[in-house]
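Archive maintenance. Older records in this collection stored only the sequence; we are now back-filling the structure field for every entry so that each record is complete. The fields below show one back-filled record exactly as it appears after the update. Entries are processed alphabetically, and Tetratricopeptide repeat protein is next in the queue.

ARCHIVE ENTRY
Title: Tetratricopeptide repeat protein
Organism field: Candidatus Desulfobia pelagia
Length field: 499
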Amino acid sequence: MRHGSSSGPNTSPQIDFLSVLTLAILSCILYSNTLQGEFLFDDLRLILHNQQIRIPDLSIGSLINAASTTRPVAMLSFALNHYFHQYNVISYHIVNIFIHFLSATFLYFFIKNTLRLPSIYEKYQDMRWLPSITAVLWLANPIHTQSVSYIIQRMNSMSAMFYILAMLLYNKARTSLTLAGKSLLFISCTISFLLAFGSKEIAVTLPFFILLYEWYFFQNLNKKWLYTSLIISGLLCLLVGFLYWLTPTFFPTGILSSGYSIYDFTLPQRVLTEFRVVLLYISLIFFPHPSRLNLDYDFPLSYSLVDPPTTLIAIILCIAGVILAGLLSNREKLISFCLLWFSGNLLIESSVIPLDLVFEHRTYLPSMLLILLTVILICKLIKFKSAHLIIFAVTIAVFSTWTYQRNNVWKNALSLLIDTAHKSPEKARPFYNVACEYAKKNDAKKAIIWLKESISKNDFDRWDLLKYDKDLDKIRNSAEFDMLITTDVPIKYRILFSE
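Back-filled structure field:
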């Protein structure tokens, strides 16, 4: 079959229209209860109090100034939000929901076009609804509420949207029958990559996955082609190294050494722990009940391969997944690619870079093809098509209900932080953040109750915040606060409050 063939799953325009319409309606319904959700946490610093996004006009100079950050595309979108609607929070949420809808739509068409490729068409020609079911399941998954309902995480969702669009455009370019069409689509793919990278740096893996996609589905795993590509990739790496040698200040330096100074874990501890975090992500993708979702996880560290013992088990399972992908590459190309997609797109934020251990939004992009893999396995392992319908319908209904429920928690900072504190009862930060919310409301009594809980935790070590944090200004002169300093602050730190 030639690349430009229109045969394959979901070729009917009616099915395309119905699928996209379903995604649009579902997006609006599931996130309708977040439209009034207030600016939270990093939203305050990067949006509400950020002078840079307050552009006076749409001139080139104003737009360039707003985009002059490490994530220019995302910040420019916030600047445009502010220009047209100032701080009307509804408009920011509408954009986030629209991005989520577009991401699911691009995912749908990417899967559809991939299934039409000659190298795998025969295996999937009977799975007509595979792209639709995958896109709907992915869109409805409650684990994505952090990427959609938390406004600043537009950086993450926008990057993923342009990422999957670039993959779709690459597919269309490779299957185009005209030189003009190919050229235009390859240029569009490159622009989409730049937009993805300009939204968030996780898109750095995109060139690798385009090469992998080419090798799997167009080069039929040709080793000679792979060796040539590896040589080209190596030369590009050498070029980057040479540029670093010439202009070291252009690249971020010292991140692996200085970056860990603000955390209570080391680089080896983080790397070991992240293997267990990956298994947590998988469990959350498949069972994302609202009771399991958390803004600030209190995840125990791994100190060695056997402390805790689950560390070694997690490492073996993660490595086994990659090995399995290699073993399946000839017989089950798409399944193999999905496994590598999930592991490869978690690598940036789940390896050596000094970041918090766990955040749900990191699963947004990797989960796209993990959901596809799951749907494929269900269709292959369960022969009765009526059973497929029941399983997918029930799962979509359950996921949708849980997403709506989880979004109720995202309505305001206080409800979200109290939820977080209850789910991380031994971690100081969530309790401290709840205290700050009550302090901003000038409720000294409740603020002090939560502050007492926070400073009683073993990991509380920021006594200076009690003195200098502006969020506590409204209660700092209260009798309750004075009593807290007298009774709960260790003597060696009380000197801060006598200055």
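Update note: Residues 13-39+87-221+254-408 form one domain. The CA atoms of residues 35 and 90 lie 5 Å apart.
Entry marked complete.
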